[in-house]
Model the fold of this input.
Amino acid sequence: MKRIAVLGVSCFLLSSCSQQMNAEDIIYEAFEKEGAGEVSYIIERSTTSDDAEITTSKEWRDGQNASRKEFFENDELTYITVSNEGLTTYKDYLDETITITDFGEDLSYIGMLSPRQEVEDYINHYSNDFDVTFEGSEELLGRNTFHLKFDIREEHDIAMIGEYELWFDEQTWVILKERLKDGDQYFTTEADSFEVVDEFPDETFVLDNEEGFEENDFFDVYSPEPTSLEEAQDKFHLPFLTLDDSFQFDSGFIRQDLEHDDRYVYDMTFTDTRGSVNIYVETEWGLVEIYGSEEEIEVRDQSALLVDEESLLSLNWQEEGLQYFVEFEGDYSAEDAEEIVTNMHFPE
Done:
């Protein structure tokens, strides 16, 4: 991870120190003090949006890479996830299933970053395309927090995420409040309670199956399998687009959709003399932002996001219930990409 450096502590103590800053100006030396490491705590949060939907959660973290999270909708327990020693167990009360995943030592993949690493990741992620402002110290739940605000730069504004605000505890770095503007709608997640603790009962990070739910191994269920175009078309609930006859089908892999038990995700690769085109198709859910480097265009009479960078040329859009992400590798221009996508067709 890129090391984030220096803002003097004195700046944080001055209410007049509200200013735009780069990521390098925000974190490192200001928090080289006791309390900046791992911490054990219990936190309860509520998430609200402009349409009054409310979800709540409770989290236990022991500071030694073990966590337990419980999620509720309208006060009804919907799922629990427990992570301990690289093993994550997900219990879904709606689907009545338990999914077990062994991630080994890859703690970042299972969301087991320390509170400090989480804050640093947010700053790294947003500072490329957002102006970062330190808004001062504010008190939440009787604790002092640092308040950062991220505003999208005009050249990266594609009418999606436009603002993000973050309040994190000065001593522990635990995030106590977040506020995000997505399009015209605001979403706020705020701690209702927060407690630093010394230890937990042994059973806290154990997830039982008293209900007898079906148990699955994540990699057994969701690992991609080699699949031909014809087989994938038969499995999909909707017909999907493919490239025209000037391209040759190279490979395809299918897996179950993480969000829909009866649907699939298909990853296919085509080639021609210029290089290769990778197409990722799934049930539509929203256009894919790539760190704010997208240009909003129209292809196939649909709104689309184009990324035309030295390291990445891609297009993604939604059409007739499906979502497409197409990546081009080789001697292709943005104009080539638009033409190739325009010529895509459904199977006859």
In short: Residues 1-24 have pLDDT under 50 and may be disordered. The chain has two domains: 9-216, 224-342. The two ends are 48 Å apart (CA to CA).
